[in-house]
Amino acid sequence: DDEVEPTRKAFEAKYPGIVLEHFELKPSDAIQRIITEANAGQTNVDVFDLYVTDVPLVKDRDLIRPIDWVKLFGVDPKQIYFDNTALDMWHLSFPMVYNTNLVKPEDVPKAWEDLLDPKWKGKIIIEARGNAFPMLAYKWGKEKTIDYVKQLMKQNPIITKGGTPTSQAIANGQGAIAIGTYAYKAEELKAKGAPVEWVKTAPVPVITHTSGVLKNAKHPNAAILFAHFVSSKEGLQARADGGGGGNLNGEGLKITAEGRAMAANNVEVIIQNDKNLQLEAEVGEEVAKIISSTK
What we know:
Blueprint lengths: L4 H10 L12 H13 L7 E5 L3 H5 L9 H5 L6 E2 L4 E8 L2 E4 L24 E4 L4 H9 L1 H12 L4 E3 L2 H9 L5 E3 L3 H9 L4 E3 L5 E10 L6 H10 L3 H9 L15 H8 L4 E3 L5 H16 L3
Parallel strand pairs: 5-6, 5-7, 9-10
Antiparallel strand pairs: 1-9, 2-3, 3-9, 4-7, 4-8
Helix pairs in contact: 1-10, 5-6, 5-12, 6-12
């Protein structure tokens, strides 16, 4: 598709003779396909793009090839997960996004706790999955995060489903402030003249996508090159050229509009990683219960 084409062209130009075949599945379907094929003694996929939370489902079955990314490519160790089996590739960020027609400059929230002010009652949009909150627990801890979400639900929020529909809802003025849409979407809408902006004074939780190579990949060397390429500055620039979200960690930060804004404003970024998955799962389960009980 349009988003992948610049990546394909850039990779094939860098490594002549390697042809990229790409297809997309929902994460759950992709994981099931990898496992089912492995059980049948087949491997028809070389490289994966998975949420960091999904990697253990494949790694724990010994289906991912560990690679010495530091030795081969000089990758920053902070961007290597799960014992050399996954690379930090790109992110989806979840800042507070607001409608500039409905929020005066002096009323823009500076911290997540500001949303508990009674003046925002009935004016907050929350995406049903509550993706931002489990990462806030990295900074706040479990108890404070869950208490915050409970208090936030007393603000009678508008519940939406899906990050992009939430972006559209805030742009259309269905609420004043939104949680659960993406900074890159806000930047896209703003560039088109929509009355949206995102808060740069509060910590921004981000979800991590990873790349890696399957253990029995049919084209292991090409797979290693591609897994690294899509995580490199060059590959991330190609992704951005296709309209994709960027990497908000390390050298890839300033490639996208959201990343440049984060760098310019010294935004604190809370990056989803492999060290806090248990905490994240526990908080996510509680958050899902709290949000679903308010629908």
